[in-house]
Inverse folding.
């Protein structure tokens, strides 16, 4: 089956104004529909920069970024929001709102300037909430939700945009085990059943290995390795990138990383 | 249901503004009376439009700086307007429009200066820079104003300050026309910005991901809200409190979506200010109170009442 | 015996002469001049003031009126009556007074209007050893007491007393009969009118015109155009040196006021009407003349 190429990043080099070195150097990435990509790497390796550049927020020094075969810089923010749904790392909550109101914000790229909210929009909100297993939360105030519920709602908002690509920036950062697993399962499900593409930045190497189709490891702005988890997550690579000794054990056909203790003699 | 109350309040406010006053106009003669047509009606209409402009501007600026304590005059506009007015009087500029025009130019100058300050660190229209820059520019303008006042002739400047403290005594159809011609454009821009402003409440980056062109949005909103406020100051002096409280009251009653907030804040601001003006000119008759005092005295209890109802529910 | 008497007389004469030549400080204080000013201060001078600085046009006029004008060595830029005063050097506009400029005139008395900044300036002058006196002068009634005390301080007691009697009798007169009304409008945006606690209001009453805002107790007050229209004064009066209608007269909202619409303005010269002074009677006569002359 020929999968649609959503995002194509080719030899991307980026530098922030006034920075001493490049944030990204010669990085390439291709995300097609139905693929779950994980973006791994230590802090400051350029993961968020890659995300921003892929979405046209940062202009490349060199290289190209294309979304649906058009240069990223050519897309208006509104049109892009109908193709890519992002769950950013942080967002603010100045005034109290209900779940269905915040998910409705995801329909804004589809609403006309002065036009009203249509039945189709409410249906899309409903579908997104159901897909994220958050339909029963619809009337709750956001500030009453748990961390896991809140992330599901934010994912529902991104889904309400009816995008082809879901981008998530460290979505499980403060979640407990159950909610972490639930989120990864949910993304996997959406990719499999709705044919979406997904690109997730995460620190969770092991879950990325279990759930993702493709993994890209960045270190100091450079792509260290790109490919299937089994090919990419070797002991040498992981130890070099994360500067810590590990052991790699297979589990259900996927490599799982086990960090080793520094002190060999410790109990 | 709330809209019914709003409409009723609007009618009641205008009725009071048109029927109350020191001149005894018998009900039968009301429609033919020049007192009504030349004095009370333009004054009521002007107060309504200015209140509406301040209400809408308050909503916009609170969204822009993402701070519910923002007031249109927090961004240095009142200091700039005061400086403009004082300069006009000190230089004895001729014509009835010298004072309002100078106040307007002063306010716009302050707006431009605050914007320029934000550009210095590359943080164009950053919320914190706007607030800090506004306070700085306001203080700077106030200092120069004080210097001019101390060097120039005293009596006329005292009258300038009376004008600056806000009031509709000078209302006329000409002033109303100026606002009617001038205000619609910024108001339309704000209406168009209503949905993107909902997104901006999530933060600048999330708003961009949801389709808002944040840079353009901030510029347009800042420009429109400041121009509306500058026009309000030019015709009515500095009337604080309306732009701060009306958005909150409307948010309590109608929620935070800007598509509803802008029109209701406009109406509520207009109602509040027209009522305040009617009170200002009748309560201590034959004298008049500065309108800004009345808006505070009326607005604070109203806000406290609504807040209590909301937190209890 | 005669030689002893002669020597005693001579000694007595010498003693008397020596006593008469003693310095003035040794003379008892009750032989000097003292008044209590309106700041409650007791102001004393050894001899009538010879070099006076006046920091208010009204005091300047009073000093000339009581014959002490030749003692004036300093005036403000606003002091313009009588014309002779222009020959006296100016010490600035007096708002606030320039202590250095005043001191440079080496006065032995400085006359100030009692206000906050002036009290501070007076204290500074006293520290330099210069005598100061502070008077209230907002109302007609205060002219007489001020004149009287200035007379004491300048040794012109007789003329000052006669002026003060004229002022007091003027101040105690009841309002003159008359049918016309007026409003004093000093500013248009916002409209500010003169009320009962002021000099102009009193002048109007004595000229036989009723100030429609006489019920407002403060000297000035902010009102609405509608209030002015409702009270319907026959005339709108203002301090103006030319007969040009005020700038607000052409605006439609102001033309609801009958006096504005019909152009019945009273342009009162600032020099005569703008401040309380010895020419108050002349001002009242002038106002009455204009009221009667108006169509």
């Amino acid at each position: 089956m020929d999968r649609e190429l959503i995002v194509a990043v080719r030899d991307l080099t980026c530098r922030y104004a006034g920075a001493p070195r490049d944030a990204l150097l010669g990085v390439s990435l291709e995300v097609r529909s139905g693929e779950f990509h994980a973006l791994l790497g230590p802090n400051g390796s350029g993961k968020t920069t890659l995300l921003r550049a892929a979405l046209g927020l940062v202009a490349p020094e060199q290289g190209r970024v294309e979304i649906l075969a058009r240069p990223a810089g050519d897309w208006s923010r509104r049109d892009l929001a109908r193709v890519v749904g992002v769950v950013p790392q942080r967002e603010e909550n100045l005034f109290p709102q209900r779940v269905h109101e915040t998910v409705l914000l995801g329909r804004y790229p589809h609403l006309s300037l002065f036009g009203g909210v249509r039945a189709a929009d409410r249906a899309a909100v409903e579908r997104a909430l159901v897909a994220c297993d958050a339909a029963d939360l619809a009337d709750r105030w956001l500030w009453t939700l748990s961390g896991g519920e809140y992330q599901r709602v934010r994912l529902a908002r991104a889904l309400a945009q009816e995008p082809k690509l879901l981008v998530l920036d460290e979505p499980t950062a403060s979640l407990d085990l159950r909610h972490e697993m639930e989120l990864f399962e949910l993304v996997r499900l959406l990719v499999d059943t709705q044919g979406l593409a997904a690109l997730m930045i995460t620190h969770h190497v092991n879950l990325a290995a279990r759930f993702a189709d493709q993994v890209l490891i960045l270190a100091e702005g450079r792509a260290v390795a790109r490919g299937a988890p089994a090919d990419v997550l070797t002991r040498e690579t992981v130890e070099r990138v994360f500067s810590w000794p590990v052991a790699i054990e297979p589990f259900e056909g996927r490599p799982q990383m086990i960090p080793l203790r520094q002190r060999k003699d410790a109990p | 249901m709330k809209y019914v109350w709003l409409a009723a309040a609007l009618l009641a406010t205008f009725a009071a503004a048109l029927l109350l006053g020191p001149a005894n106009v018998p009900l039968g003669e009301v429609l033919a009376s020049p007192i009504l047509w030349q004095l009370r009606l333009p004054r009521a209409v002007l107060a309504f439009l200015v209140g509406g402009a301040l209400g809408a501007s308050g909503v916009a600026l609170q969204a822009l700086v993402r701070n519910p304590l923002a007031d249109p005059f927090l961004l240095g506009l009142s200091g700039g307007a005061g400086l403009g007015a004082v300069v006009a009087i000190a230089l004895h500029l001729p014509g009835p429009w010298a004072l309002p025009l100078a106040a307007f130019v002063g306010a716009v100058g302050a707006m431009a200066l605050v914007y320029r300050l934000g550009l210095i660190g590359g943080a164009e229209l950053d919320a914190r820079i706007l607030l800090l820059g506004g306070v700085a520019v306001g203080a700077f303008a106030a200092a120069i104003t004080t210097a001019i006042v101390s060097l120039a002739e005293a009596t006329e400047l005292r009258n300038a300050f009376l004008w600056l403290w806000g009031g509709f005594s000078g209302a006329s159809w000409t002033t109303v026309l100026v606002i009617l011609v001038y205000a619609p454009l910024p108001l339309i821009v704000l209406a168009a910005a209503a949905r993107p402003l909902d997104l901006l409440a999530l933060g600048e980056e999330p708003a961009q991901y949801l389709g808002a062109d944040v840079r353009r949005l901030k510029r347009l909103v800042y420009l429109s809200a400041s121009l509306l406020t500058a026009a309000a100051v030019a015709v009515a002096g500095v009337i604080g409190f309306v732009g701060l409280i009306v958005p909150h009251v409307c948010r309590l009653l109608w929620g935070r979506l800007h598509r509803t907030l802008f029109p209701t804040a406009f109406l509520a601001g207009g109602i509040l200010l027209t009522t305040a003006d009617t009170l200002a000119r009748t309560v201590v008759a034959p004298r008049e109170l500065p309108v800004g005092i009345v808006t505070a005295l009326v607005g604070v209890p109203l806000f406290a009442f609504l807040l209590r109802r909301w937190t209890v529910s | 015996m005669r030689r002893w008497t002669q020597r005693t007389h001579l000694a007595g004469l010498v003693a008397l002469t020596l006593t008469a030549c003693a310095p003035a400080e040794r003379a008892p204080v009750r032989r000097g001049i003292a008044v209590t000013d309106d700041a409650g201060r007791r102001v004393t001078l050894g001899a009538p003031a010879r070099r006076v600085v006046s920091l208010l046009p009204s005091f300047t006029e009073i000093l000339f009126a009581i014959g002490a004008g030749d003692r004036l060595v300093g005036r403000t830029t606003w002091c313009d009556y009588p014309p002779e005063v222009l020959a006296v050097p100016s010490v600035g506009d007096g708002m606030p007074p320039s202590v250095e400029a005043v001191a440079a005139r080496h006065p032995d008395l400085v006359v100030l209007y009692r206000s906050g900044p002036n009290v501070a300036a007076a204290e500074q002058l006293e520290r330099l050893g210069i005598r100061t006196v502070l008077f209230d002068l907002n109302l007609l009634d205060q002219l007489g007491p001020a004149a009287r005390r200035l007379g004491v301080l300048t040794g012109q007691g007789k003329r000052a007393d006669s002026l003060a009697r004229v002022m007091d009798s003027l101040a105690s007169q009841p309002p003159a009969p008359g049918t016309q009304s007026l409003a004093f409008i000093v500013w248009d945006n916002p409209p500010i009118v003169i009320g009962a606690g002021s000099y102009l209001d009193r002048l109007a009453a004595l000229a036989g015109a009723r100030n429609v805002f006489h019920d407002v107790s403060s000297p000035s007050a902010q009102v609405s155009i509608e209030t002015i229209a409702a009270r319907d004064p026959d005339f709108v009066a203002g301090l103006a040196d030319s007969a040009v209608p005020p700038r607000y007269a052409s605006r439609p909202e102001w033309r609801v006021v009958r006096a504005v619409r019909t152009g019945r303005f009273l342009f009162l010269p600032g020099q005569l009407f703008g401040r309380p002074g010895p020419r108050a009677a002349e001002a009242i006569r002038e106002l009455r003349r204009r009221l009667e002359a108006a169509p």
